[in-house]
Specification:
Pathway: Amino-acid biosynthesis; L-lysine biosynthesis via DAP pathway; L-lysine from DL-2,6-diaminopimelate: step 1/1. The protein is an alpha/beta fold. It has 13 helices and 20 strands.
């Protein structure tokens, strides 16, 4: 027998309380994956798998990815665009959120295209079976080699700046032209962390609007380039809908300007950016509500300009995979500073989740092996790395902990694995995909041997 909510007579707060705020059908609005339950052992269960058992089998830290949640988010995006956009639409997974073979394969099975931002991400997507026709190659400083790989693969290349544009025009040829989109900075600001604002004028990304006439003129003269679209992205972890209303009108205006230069523009890419719930106070729009605003405002902008509907593209990343994953840790040492703070250390930290130290990101934590135990302690969950700032959660509410307890941090699917490092020469964690009580290893845990694989010791330093 499993339960998903506290019993009616329970009055003491416990980790079960987090399941109470987990009722939305939209995965990005949930704190936990769709499949979470609590089993008879009082353990957290994801995808029908006991988190404690997963740690015993695969070790910790451990990324646990719920396949149902990821697929559901993909389906909700596709269904919403089918419902609200009368023209052709394409949903694309922004794979920088988590690029690995299994995730790319799931995205393409669900009918999504894939957005990559490096040669390595391109290789991964191709190896996972993504059709080059559904690959879009982003990035603000793609190398000569990466641009050539994009041409050879036959994917669309999103050109970010003059250097890329001129390099690409020289690499491609009239016989094997490069199919491109132009990334433009829309000048629309969102109230998010400065480091994830990518759409305002002061941004490293994209051509500035005052360059467009010159850019369009140049591209129209290049027989080696076929410009089929325009791209803009206004930021990430966005809870506002108004900026997306504004973006459609801006893109349609630019599309008409490009067509006046003879460019065969047929695709408009509005980027992504929809936020997710990291804590119970976060309140992002649902996937469907976001898609409806994007679609209806693109239709409105085209009607007002009296132009045909373009192929409408969006690029969700975080809102597809962020809440599909939890990270499990094992508690180790603890320390109490009288009158100040109690610390509990886990066997990971900034090397598997750099977002708290980088962005001051907030998370919640559950006691995975004692879900109904009272949250009687205020504990700062510290990482194991030699950095004072290596703290995953300040002042977390947890039960009394002992060494060996398992805790789980939700909403760790986006950018945690992608940004993981070997700081302090700590091996990166394993990742498992869970569904229907089965766990499949999708990323092996690094070994100590992996850590020194590329080290070289000059002969004169050998003892």
């Amino acid at each position: 027998m499993v339960s998903t909510l506290p019993s009616a007579n329970q009055t003491t707060r416990s980790s079960l309380d987090y399941l109470e705020t987990n009722g939305s059908d939209s995965p990005n609005q949930r704190l936990l994956p769709l499949s979470v339950q609590v089993n008879e052992q009082d353990h957290l269960q994801v995808g029908g798998c006991d988190v404690v058992d997963l740690v015993k089998e695969f070790g910790s830290p451990l990324y646990i990815l719920d396949e149902v949640t990821l697929r559901t988010a993909c389906q909700q995006y596709r269904q919403a665009f089918d419902q609200y956009y009368p023209g052709e639409a394409l949903v694309m997974y922004a794979s920088k959120a988590w690029n690995c073979l299994a995730v790319c394969a799931i995205a393409t099975q669900e009918g999504l295209a894939v957005d990559v931002v490096s040669g390595g991400e391109l290789l991964t997507a191709l190896t996972a079976g993504v059709n080059p026709d559904k690959l879009y190659f982003h990035g603000n400083n793609k190398s000569h080699g990466e641009l050539q790989r994009g041409i050879d693969a036959g994917c669309r290349i999103v050109v970010d700046n003059w250097h890329e544009l001129k390099t690409l025009s020289a690499l491609a040829s009239p016989q094997t032209p490069a199919t491109i989109l132009l990334r433009i900075t829309p000048g629309i600001e969102c109230h998010t962390h400065d480091y994830i604002r990518t759409g305002h004028i002061d941004s490293k990304f994209g051509f500035d609007p005052d360059q467009l006439e010159e850019v369009f003129t140049f591209v129209a003269q290049q027989s080696s380039l076929v410009c089929v679209g325009l791209h803009a992205h206004i930021g990430s972890q966005i809870f506002e809908l108004q900026p997306h209303e504004d973006l459609s009108a801006v893109l349609v205006t630019w599309m008409e300007a490009a067509k006046r230069h003879g460019l065969p523009i047929s695709e408009l890419d509005v980027g992504g950016g929809l936020g997710i719930r990291y804590t119970e106070t976060d309140d992002p729009p649902s996937i469907t509500d976001w898609a409806q605003v994007v679609c209806e405002n693109m239709v409105k902008a085209c009607q007002e300009a009296n132009v045909a509907l373009p192929k409408l593209i969006c690029e969700p990343g975080r809102s597809l995979i962020g809440t599909a994953c939890i990270t499990a840790y094992t508690i180790g040492g603890q320390k109490t500073v009288p009158g100040i703070r109690a610390y509990a250390a886990v066997d990971g930290g900034m090397s598997d989740n750099p977002r708290p130290i980088t962005y001051q990101s907030l998370y919640r934590v559950l006691a995975a092996n004692k879900m109904s135990a009272p949250l009687s302690e205020t504990v700062t969950l510290a990482g194991k790395h030699c950095e004072s700032g290596d703290v995953l959660i300040h002042d977390a509410q947890l039960p009394v902990l002992v060494a060996g307890d398992i805790v789980a941090i939700p909403a760790t699917g986006a950018y945690n694995y992608s940004m993981a490092s070997n700081y302090n020469r700590v091996p990166r964690p394993a990742a498992v995909l869970v569904k229907n009580g089965e766990a499949s290893l999708i990323v092996e845990r690094e070994t100590d041997a992996d850590l020194i694989r590329y080290d070289r010791l000059p002969s004169y330093l050998r003892s």
